[in-house]
Each structure stands twice: as C-alpha cells, then as structure tokens.
Amino acid sequence: MQNTLGGENSNGGPLLPRVERQRLHDAVVEHLQNLIIEGVLAPGMKLNEREVCERLGISRTPLREAMKVLASEGLIDIAPNRGAFVSKMNDNEIWEAFEMMSGLEALSGELAAERISPAEIADIKVLHEAMLVCRAQNDLPGYYSRNQTIHNKINEAARNSMLRQIYLSINRRLLALRFKSNFQEAKWDRAIHEHDEMIKALESRDGKRLAAILRQHLLDKRDSVMADLREAAGHAASGGIAATAKK
Questions:
Q1: Is residue 33 domain-shared with residue 145, that is, in the same domain?
Q2: What's the DSSP call for residue 138?
Q3: What are the angstrom distances between the C-alpha of 116 and each of 84, 153, 187?
Q4: 98 and 81 in one domain?
C-alpha cells in the first residue's frame, strides 16, 4: 500500500495525518502555553505572528492552529480584524476563579484520599522530592511544573470525569497567575510547607484534612495574586503621576 497525503488507504478510508505534523502541533501549543504561564507573553499582549513564527522557527499555519486551541481554552482572545491577544481577566474574574478553584481542589483532595492507589501516592512523593530540589536550585519553572503535576495527579485520583473537565477548564486560565504567586521567596517557602502537609494528609488518607489544606492553599494564592495586582496598579498610578508632574 502506498502511503500518500490526502489519499485513501487500501480499505478506502481516509489517511491519518502524519505523526510529525501532530507532534509539531502539540509542541507549538505547549510552547505557547509555557510562554503565557511564565509571563513572557503577558496578559493583554498582542501576538505578532511574524515574530512568534521566527522565534519558534515555524510557519504561520501551525501557529494559527495552535492559537485556535488556546482560544478554545480561554488563554487567547482572537478579535476579527484586530488579531490575537493574550487573555486578561479583570480583578473580579480572578477572585471568582480562585474561589471556584479552591472548591474544586478541596473536592479533588477529599475524593482522592479515598480512591488513590499506593503507586499514585508514590509517584506524587517522587514529584514532591523533585520539586524540593528545584526550590533549592531556585528553578522556578521546574518547581512550578512539578507543583502543577502534583495538583493534577490529585485531581485525576479523584476518579470523577465531570470534576476533571471543570477543573482543567478553570485551571488553564489561572496557571500564569499561580506561577507568578511564587516569585517572592517567603511565599514560595510557605507553598512548599503546605505541600508537605498535603503529602502527610494523602498518606494517612485523611480526606477532610487534605480538602482543608487544598482549599486554603488556593485561597492563599488568590490573596497573594490580588495583593500583587494592587501593588502593580499602585506603581503604575504613581508612575503616571510622576510623569505628568515632569511636564
């Protein structure tokens, strides 16, 4: 059987896309997600297709396909005749999203404590140790990646597909803000202490305790994020006043 793009196989069915193309698509989506999470592409920033293509070494077609995926996830807004922009939530949306996420994380923890397997707990402990190594090396991206994988695995261990869907949908929009909340070392170390307590509650299968820790963990993130936003707004306002005074 000759395998050619755009044709049919010997059974008369359509051919599947080349694996390489799918890998490229996934890689571009993941790379853009990371740029948004780490703040390289900041909220409200317009995406210059030419610059992004040059940076990633790709053509515009895979970039546009990736942007459609990110738009469906709420990470990018595509405006007709204006282009694509990194999504930006207002203060009220951020508050409500973290409030909702705290409940989802708490429910995930309570269910996971009942349903998680010993092998899954062992995997989470390995990730936790790797996360501590990243903290010792001041590797924030590495730390955050393992941090989020731990939260993700707890959610998966809840074994509830409806909870999983809602969790992923809301968490995608908060990833960049959760990343930034660890910039200050005191907050970073407090988050690690809370993760230590999560591991203990998970090992003892204390669902109520784990739910309470996770809920407060997310509410602390919310308060940290809101404080940072207020501080940034204050600096911006004082900068504007100073610039006006110089004129």
A1: no
A2: T
A3: 40, 9, 29
A4: no
Q: How many residues does the chain have?
A: 247
H-helix or E-strand spanning residue 141 = helix 140-157
CA–CA separation, 42 and 100 (whole Å): 23
Write the DSSP symbol of residue 9. Answer: -
Residues 30 and 74 in one domain: yes
Over pLDDT 70: what percentage of the chain?
Answer: 85
Q: Would you tell me how many other CB atoms lie within 10 Å of the CB of residue 71?
A: 14
122 within a domain of the structure (yes/no): yes
Q: Per the structure, how many domains does the chain have?
A: 2
pLDDT tens digits, one per residue of 2-15: 433 344 444 454 44
Q: Please give the Cα distance from 133 to 127 (Å, whole number).
A: 10
Domain range for residue 44? 19-86
d(CA 92, CA 42): 19
Per-residue pLDDT of 17-72, as tens digits, reads: 443 567 888 899 999 998 998 888 999 999 999 999 998 899 999 999 999 999 99
Residue 106 lies in a domain: yes
